[in-house]
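In the design runs reported in the main text, the only information available to the sequence generator was the tokenized backbone. The following block is the verbatim input for one such run; it is reproduced so that readers can re-run the procedure and compare outputs position by position.
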């Protein structure tokens, strides 16, 4: 089922990014649009420097499943 597939993708994704996304969603609910977009931008900037981001890009280029380590 579609919902199950989406949940499986999220759960098997990079744990650091999932944690950041959950935090931005939670904190952004009460924030202005400008503040929420700032939170998202900051989280993305931090995540772009992680080993998991590099693993995701490398796995995509090599046409294989990524092995995220949470780093």
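Verbatim output:
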């Amino acid at each position: 089922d579609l919902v199950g597939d989406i949940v499986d993708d999220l759960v098997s994704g990079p744990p650091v990014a999932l944690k950041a996304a959950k935090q931005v969603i939670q904190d952004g609910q009460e924030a202005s649009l400008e503040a929420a977009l700032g939170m998202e931008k900051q989280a993305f900037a931090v995540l772009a420097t992680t080993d998991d981001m590099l693993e995701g890009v490398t796995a995509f280029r090599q046409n294989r499943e990524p092995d995220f380590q949470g780093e």
